[in-house]
Amino acid sequence: MELEERVSELERRLTELVGGGRSDVQRPTGADFWALEGLKQQLSGAGATDGGVLYAGVVRLPTGERYEWQYGALTERLLEARALDEVDGHGGDAAGRDGEAGADWSDAAESFAALGHPMRLRLLREILGGRRTAAELAALDETGTTGQIYHHLRLLTGAGWLHTKGRGRYEVPGARVVPLLVVLTAARP
To answer: What is the mean pLDDT of each run of 10 residues along the chain (189 residues)?
Structure first.
């Protein structure tokens, strides 16, 4: 497709999106929560009266890698450990039945702690951007010594936010790319 054709196609799509000044075109509003409405329908169909959560993403990294991912959990399941604690007085591992999210929330502490340092967040961002080796990361300004970088990489690897691939190459596992971006989005004020 030639440049002029591409520009014409973009102009046509833009006109469709903004309605071309037509008053009969319905524009999305702040109340247009299509993901939320879809989740409500799914939960209703499943009889999940306590609700649930859903997060999803379609991501293309600067390296060209593409990830499509979604995860949902029922509220009842997420709060199950608390409910057990109220019943028997000492909690228990609610994840024992199927390994889902109902486990003691303290199980997530290591994962959150690994993200709790600005340098580790920077390393994750750089790795997602294509810098994959400790040498490439050490060449960046203000990343600390090689020993400090390896310390941070070990913590991130231990918590599952990174894994090694090949000879000293690090990457964020595909199943953790969207969750990482969701956590970062949720942490912003």
So the answer is: 66 57 50 83 92 94 95 90 46 39 78 96 96 92 91 96 91 96 92
